[in-house]
Amino acid sequence: MLKLFRVRGESMYPTYADGSRVLTLKLPSRWLKQGMPVVANVADDTYIVKRVREVIDERHLVLSSDNEATRSRYCGIPFQSSKIVGKVVAAF
Q: Mind listing the pLDDT tens digit for each residue in 11-39?
């Protein structure tokens, strides 16, 4: 399933600028790999764009931002892979 999201903020700059749109494709958790850009659901109708830094196991992974000058409470800690909406497959 494909979904479209708008990037807000600078955490993924320069890969994705504020206001960019990203298209995601839902993948099974076991297909998520280190380095993949993804969109995650962190609360009701609240989504973030991050990169998979590490796959711990099929149910948990660690996210990171591309912009090291920013901080996110979702990065650097175990994150449930079930909350990943999809892999970013295109940006515009």
A: 999 999 999 999 999 999 999 999 999 99
Distance CA 60, CA 9 (A): 25
Report the C-alpha gap between 55 and 86 in whole angstroms: 15
Task: List, in order, residues 6 or more apart from 31 with CB less than 8 Å away.
Answer: none
* Model pTM score: 0.95
**In sequence order, which residues have a C-beta less than 8 Å from that of residue 54 and are 6 or more positions away?**
34, 61, 62
For 25, residues 6+ apart whose C-beta sits below 8 A from its C-beta are 1, 2, 86, 87, 89
